[in-house]
């Protein structure tokens, strides 16, 4: 991207990686490097240091994509899910690595480089639809990813891409369905899980929390439970919580 921005062959640009703090997605590191390269191209034989401060980072780094999820399901007389319909509307979740147009400085040059056309990331990992396919056993399920190509601001990766939104939406909806079925939230999840490891993880978390022995919450207090397998192919995770509002 820097070579394209400067109009130079790749053998004329050398990048040396230095370990730093993590960024949990896409921060301004590429842009700071591009700024330094752009200045250095006009001031040869002089060392150039560019350091973005925190307020500059938060003001100019790519934003996390906007997301909207909509879920609908049907229960039978026994309280089991018989139909599932889930839709997610989201932008791209990755603009890195990419051509010069992904760099902030390149977009503001006299001869600017346009932001490249975004493309969705394919399943099984996915982008906005990461973890949109529930791991639960459902006899009829439909999951639709509405990919939004245009946004008024620069966007890119936020840690876990679309998983944070999809897991929150799906698990919140599972709680609503459990309540509609008159079922305990953990028991309702187990009733819709065939994966042995998933069942073991859910059961272990509930046992460690003493879920079945929890007391009736007072006003302003509550309990929560959630489960997911990252990307539906990586680590399993179940979490139980007790929360209260001050």
UniProtKB/TrEMBL annotation:
What would you give as a GO molecular function for this chain, any one?
oxidoreductase activity
Aldehyde oxidase/xanthine dehydrogenase first molybdopterin binding domain mapped to chain residues: 2-114, 134-190
* InterPro entries, per database record: AldOxase/xan_DH_MoCoBD1, AldOxase/xan_DH_Mopterin-bd_sf, N-heterocyclic_Hydroxylase
What is the protein name stated in its UniProt record? Aldehyde oxidase/xanthine dehydrogenase first molybdopterin binding domain-containing protein
The protein's organism comes out as marine sediment metagenome
């Amino acid at each position: 991207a820097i070579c394209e921005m400067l109009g130079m062959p790749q053998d004329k640009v050398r990048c040396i990686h230095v370990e730093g703090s993590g960024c949990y997605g896409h921060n301004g590191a590429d842009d700071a490097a591009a700024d330094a390269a752009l200045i250095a191209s006009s001031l040869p034989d002089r060392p150039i240091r560019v350091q973005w401060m925190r307020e500059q980072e938060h003001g100019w780094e790519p934003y996390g994509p906007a997301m909207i999820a909509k879920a609908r399901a049907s229960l039978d007389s026994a309280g089991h899910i018989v139909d599932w319909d889930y839709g997610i509307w989201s932008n791209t979740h990755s603009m890195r690595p990419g051509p010069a147009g992904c760099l902030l400085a390149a977009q503001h040059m006299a001869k600017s480089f346009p932001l490249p056309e975004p493309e969705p990331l394919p399943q099984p990992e996915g982008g906005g639809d990461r973890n949109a396919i529930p791991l639960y056993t459902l006899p009829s399920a439909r999951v639709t990813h509405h990919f939004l190509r245009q946004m008024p601001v620069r966007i890119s990766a936020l840690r876990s891409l679309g998983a944070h939104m999809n897991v929150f939406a799906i698990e919140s909806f599972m709680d609503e369905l459990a309540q509609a079925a008159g079922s305990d939230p953990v028991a309702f999840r187990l009733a819709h899980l065939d994966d042995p490891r998933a069942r073991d993880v859910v059961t272990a978390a509930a046992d460690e929390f003493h879920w079945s022995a929890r007391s009736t919450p007072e006003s302003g207090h509550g309990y929560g439970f959630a489960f997911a397998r990252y990307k539906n192919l990586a680590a399993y995770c179940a979490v139980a919580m007790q929360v209260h509002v001050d």
